[in-house]
């Protein structure tokens, strides 16, 4: 059942955050092993390993902020389109990495102007309502925009944006133009809720890239089930009166979490205090990426 649209700021602060979050960050252009940074599946594999460790109590709840230098992450259903392999190869030839992700949804572009925000949390006792977690992350993102751009934040609505790529009930939009999508993945003892936030660059260009992928992958067959992307439904926060850079947006995220009483612990401090460390280039992360590739390859 589709959720009713609502104004996020008027809805108020949603949900409870942990008392402490360990912060892991990965910028799209960083050089933590060239191969691991370029591999589209490594950030997803990193979160799989990290989520297991959160569930096992090896590490407290986590905030993961990351971007990728340039790629398109497909949903499993996208990869089943008749000419998906050829459409993916065409993107690769343009220098745009591709991969099929395991977390559901449909195709999304990733680049240094798209900031991914993930909360990795242990499963609580009792029933888990994913709507609560979606509203929690939506409120954090909206309040982060409000730090420097309250007028833009006041216009943010949570609703499915028809014509956007990877549409969902908890799309975040201003004036009917989507800048964020939210998804969730569960493991046996932990889970994560994840948002991709288009901060800078052209929403129209990103929408056109995904529209073209579907045109090529479906080979013009209008009877197939795939998102009919209208590029004009996508925009970056910078185009909508919001923060203009990744640094400004992530600083807002940190400020909001701190204002809600959550202690943000740098990963370096966690390593000093407990010895726990996890990097993109760690063998267990690369092995998890290999397994994901084999399991979800077309």
Automatic annotation (TrEMBL):
InterPro entries: aa-tRNA-synth_II/BPL/LPL, BPL_LPL_catalytic, Octanoyltrans_LipM/LipL. The lineage of its organism: Bacteria, Bacillati, Bacillota, Bacilli, Bacillales. Residues 57-245 form the BPL/LPL catalytic domain. This is Lipoate--protein ligase family protein. One of its GO terms (molecular function) is ligase activity. Keywords: Ligase. The keyword Transmembrane does not apply. It comes from the Bacteria. Pfam families: LplA-B_cat (PF21948). It comes from Paenibacillus tritici. SUPFAM superfamilies: Class II aaRS and biotin synthetases.
């Amino acid at each position: 059942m589709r959720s009713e649209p609502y104004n996020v700021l008027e809805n108020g602060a949603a949900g409870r955050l942990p008392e402490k979050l360990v912060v892991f960050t990965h910028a799209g252009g960083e050089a933590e092993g060239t191969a691991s940074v370029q591999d589209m599946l490594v950030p997803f594999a990193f979160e799989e390993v990290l989520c297991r460790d959160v569930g096992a109590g090896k590490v407290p709840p986590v905030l993961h902020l990351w971007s990728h230098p340039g790629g398109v992450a497909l949903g499993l259903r996208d990869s089943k389109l008749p000419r998906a392999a050829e459409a993916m190869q065409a993107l690769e030839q343009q220098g745009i990495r591709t991969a099929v992700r395991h977390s559901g949804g449909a195709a999304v572009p990733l680049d240094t102007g798209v900031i991914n925000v993930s909360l990795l949390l242990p499963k609580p006792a009792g029933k888990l309502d994913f709507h609560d977690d979606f509203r929690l992350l939506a409120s954090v993102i909206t309040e982060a925009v409000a730090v420097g751009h309250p007028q833009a934040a006041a216009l943010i609505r949570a609703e499915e944006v028809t014509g956007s790529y990877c549409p969902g009930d908890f799309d975040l939009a201003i004036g009917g133009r989507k800048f964020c999508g939210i998804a969730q993945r569960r493991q046996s003892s932990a889970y994560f809720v994840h948002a991709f936030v288009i901060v800078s660059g052209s929403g129209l260009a990103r929408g056109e890239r995904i529209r073209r992928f579907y045109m090529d992958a479906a080979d013009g067959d209008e009877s197939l089930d795939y998102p009919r992307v209208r590029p004009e439904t996508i925009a970056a926060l910078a185009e909508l009166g919001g923060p203009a850079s990744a640094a400004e947006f992530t600083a807002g995220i940190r400020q909001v979490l701190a204002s809600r009483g959550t202690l943000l612990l740098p990963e370096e401090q966690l390593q000093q205090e407990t010895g726990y460390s996890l990097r993109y280039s760690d063998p267990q992360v690369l092995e998890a990426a290999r397994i994901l590739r084999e399991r979800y390859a077309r």
